[in-house]
Amino acid sequence: MKNNRYTLRALARLLAYPDVDLRAQLDPLMAAIDAEAALSPSRRAELRALAADLLRRDPIEVESRYVETFDRGRSTSLHLFEHVHGDSRDRGPAMIDLRQTYERAGLDLASGELPDHLGVVLEFASTQPASVAKGFLAELGHIVNAIFSALMQKKSPYAAVMAAVLDLAGMPARAVEIEPEETLDESWAEPVAFDGCSTRGQARPGDPQPVHLVRKASTQGVMA
User: Fold this and answer.
1) What is the pTM (predicted TM-score) of this model?
2) In terms of C-beta density within 10 A (0-12 exposed, 13-18 middle, 19 or more buried), how is residue 215 classed?
3) What span, in angstroms and rounded, lies between the C-alpha atoms of 76 and 66?
4) Residue pLDDT, tens place only, 144-195
5) Distance of alpha carbon 72 from alpha carbon 53, whole angstroms
6) Burial 19-32 (b: 16+ CB within 10 A, else e)
7) Which DSSP symbol is given to 138?
8) What is the pLDDT of residues 15-44, one digit of tens each?
9) Which of 28, 78, 186, 191 registers the highest number of CB atoms within 10 A of its CB?
10) C-alpha to C-alpha distances, 38 to 31, 32, 41, 88, 93, nearest whole angstrom
């Protein structure tokens, strides 16, 4: 089995926030992927197209698109347990188990890093023998394929990274139907002030408003 250590690390970096430092590293990252040749020529061409796109566009646009893609929708979240556990109580124990897996391998997460972020997962896989890394990624393949499908639906060039991860897991990248979702901002939005006292399903401006009659408290015995 071909070595994939540097390819996995390069893919992890491609999923990082595309600031000036990352964009300066794109050429060496592509060179490392080409040199290791763990991916097919066609897949490497897709990754080069992503890198070229990140360099060609205005930096503000690139960074804004990244946030819109990965931070404002659950279907494309890079936090894998978001897709499995959501906000349930099971997510905490799963995080602990994964962190302990890293610790047993002698790896410590940097401050602020969450163990289920795909970039962190790929970094960990890069420390393992190629066959072990393949099996580890295969266990997560169904989640990565769901993210791939959502990115394809959005016509995002980042879908190439997910397809490459699936290749290294020995799994085909197959787009599946993804149900439309609210963005995280929409699902967490507060009701608009004075919007017909609205929460979802209640009256809005222009709709008949309920009237509640309340008995006025007696003022007898109270001095003016």
Assistant:
1) 0.76
2) exposed
3) 11
4) 999 999 999 999 999 999 999 999 999 999 888 766 665 545 544 554 444 4
5) 21
6) eeebeebbeebbeb
7) H
8) 999 999 999 999 999 999 999 999 999 999
9) 78
10) 12, 10, 9, 37, 34
